[in-house]
Amino acid sequence: ERALNESLEKKRKELALKSIHRCSIKNYGNTEEMLNDALSAVTDFMGMETAFFGKISNSSVKIEYCAGCGKNFAAGGVFAVEDIFYPDAVKAAIPLFIADTTQDSEWKEHPIHRRFGFSSYIGIPISIKGELYGIFGICSTSTQKYDEFTLEITRLFAEKIESEIERKIIQSELLEAKTLSSMSRIAATIAH
């Protein structure tokens, strides 16, 4: 049985490394495709049902991308930050790893457990250009055990998500700058 468990653990780690590698080298058509693939890969290798990215705006979080989400917690949903994270942890950009919300006095009353039924939770703040931008979260209705490998792979996925969102923002800013430049040239031509 021990040899079987070690073999399963080795396969899980190989899957995780292959998943992060695939997300790093694959040429995606767009940001949405990459993020959805990354979120699905995270749920697969961790054995957790739900992974999401939510954009923070003021005191709310809008779920923009979600893998394995149900009707109560889905893409497009808007929640108060305190319903899916701790505001103090968000401000400090501290990742949260809660293996069993039912055994943690602070988390068993938290909406992530009470309202959504999640018993395990990982939440990692995502910063863009030094500013807090959103939350990468992974949740499960069953308790989990997090080893150092799992935590490190989760951080790598968070970095990949962060870099993809930053790339999308920079691309959008460049397009806007080109459009303004073209409009300025047209206006200058018309003025002469």
Short précis:
By secondary structure, this protein is an alpha+beta fold.
Can you tell me about this structure?
This protein has 192 residues and is an alpha+beta fold. Helices cover 51% and strands 21% of the residues. It is built from 6 helices and 6 strands. It has a 6-stranded antiparallel sheet with strand order 3-2-1-6-5-4. A hairpin with a 2-residue loop joins strand 1 and strand 2 (60-67). Helix 1 (2-25) runs parallel beside helix 6 and helix 2 (31-46) runs antiparallel to helix 6. The longest helix has 44 residues, at 148-191. It is globular, with a radius of gyration of 20 Å. The model has no long low-confidence stretch (mean pLDDT 83).
Question: Layout of SSEs?
Answer:
Layout: H1 2-25, H2 31-46, E1 50-57, E2 60-67, E3 78-80, H3 81-84, H4 87-92, E4 96-98, H5 111-114, E5 120-128, E6 131-140, H6 148-191
Antiparallel strand pairs: 1-2, 1-6, 2-3, 4-5, 5-6
Helix pairs in contact: 1-2, 1-6, 2-6
Overview features:
alpha+beta; 6 strands; globular; 192 residues
Shape: globular
- Secondary-structure element pattern, one letter each: HHEEEHHEHEEH
State the major sheet. Answer: 6 strands, antiparallel
User: How big is the Rg?
Assistant: 20 Å
Approximate helicity band = 40-55%
Number of helices: 6
